[in-house]
Design a protein that fits this description.
This protein is of the alpha/beta class. The chain is 33% helix and 24% strand. It has eleven helices and 14 strands.
Length: 309
């Protein structure tokens, strides 16, 4: 029997980056869904409120692999120069449940979240989509440039945020991922010209009006997993094809969907799941915007984490 301490594989953030590319992570997410895995069957995660944020425990079992992420969400951390979401990921042997690897979960989250966005966007967005608007200035906002560049040739990127200094930092950080694109600070009016829109904020209310979004645009909202928060206007979901990770998660955690259903602009049954999209049960709409709303699920971490070992 292996010694749990001495036989553990440790993978830090730099090693994860060197071993798993964004393109590989995107492909792995799509392959898991095409292979028949239905996120509706993913193990439920627990979310516990504490004084300064939340504790998340995210287990998963898939194709003979088992793992668990311990994550923390501290909304005030960016002001302290720390990441809002921090984590550790533990892979375990599926038969003995012996821990086999510990991975930098913060780096893993920064990789898998944009990969989960890009996988369905690759099926939903027009082939020539290349004008991207990003709301947010944190690590997730920046890494979404890398993810969108992995599936489309970006022409322009516009970052929108409340703090001009942080917007400038995000612009400079994103240049490495799309060196040929014109990357500059943006304004709300840029939404009118965007065919790709990513919302990666901690906003509690919609960031822009629904009518600004073109019918051929694809919108991604990843900012929260809380039912009382929403980055998107309910009217936008009402006029869009809405893609979610699972209907169970959308009904309990996706504030954008929950608000739209409550407002009567869409029915919960109208949402398309990622499983349906990747297995061909549902097709990308061509007559209206496409909206991808994610909250984050354990299977996604596991699919990407096992690529690092």
């Amino acid at each position: 029997m292996p010694d749990v301490i001495t036989d553990l594989i440790l993978v830090d953030g730099a090693q994860l980056t060197g071993r798993v590319s964004m393109r590989a992570a995107i492909t792995a997410i799509g392959d898991a869904l095409r292979g028949g895995f239905d996120p509706e069957n993913d193990l439920p995660r627990s979310i516990q409120d504490v004084t300064n944020g939340q504790l998340l425990l995210m287990p998963a079992a898939l194709d003979g692999s088992v793992g668990q992420k311990f994550a923390t969400v501290a909304p005030s951390n960016p002001a302290r120069g720390r990441e809002r979401i921090q984590a550790l990921y533990i892979l375990v042997d599926a038969e003995t449940l012996t821990p086999t690897a510990i991975i930098d979960g913060t780096a893993l989250t920064s990789l898998r979240t944009p990969a989960v966005s890009a996988a369905p966007v690759d099926l939903l967005a027009s082939s020539d989509a290349g004008d991207l608007v990003i709301f947010g200035t944190g690590p997730q906002a920046v890494r979404h440039v890398e993810a969108m560049q992995a599936i489309r040739q970006l022409r322009t990127v516009r970052f929108i945020g409340r703090d001009a200094g942080r917007v400038g930092d995000a612009v400079r950080a994103a240049e490495q991922y799309a060196p040929a694109a014109d990357i500059v600070p943006g304004t709300i009016d840029d939404v009118r010209r965007a065919d790709l829109i990513v919302c990666a904020t901690s906003a509690t209310d919609p960031l822009f009006a629904a009518e600004l979004v073109r019918d051929d645009a694809t919108v991604v909202a990843i900012g929260s997993h809380e039912p009382e928060k929403a980055e998107l206007d309910p009217q936008l979901l009402g006029r869009s094809q809405v893609v979610v990770e699972s209907r169970r998660v959308a009904a309990t955690e996706a504030g954008d969907v929950i608000r739209a259903v409550a407002a009567g602009t869409m029915a919960a049954a109208d949402a398309v799941t990622m499983s349906e999209l990747f297995t061909g049960v549902a097709r990308a709409a061509t007559d209206r915007p496409r909206v991808v709303k994610t909250c984050g699920m354990g299977w996604q971490d596991l699919v990407v984490a096992r690529l690092a070992i």
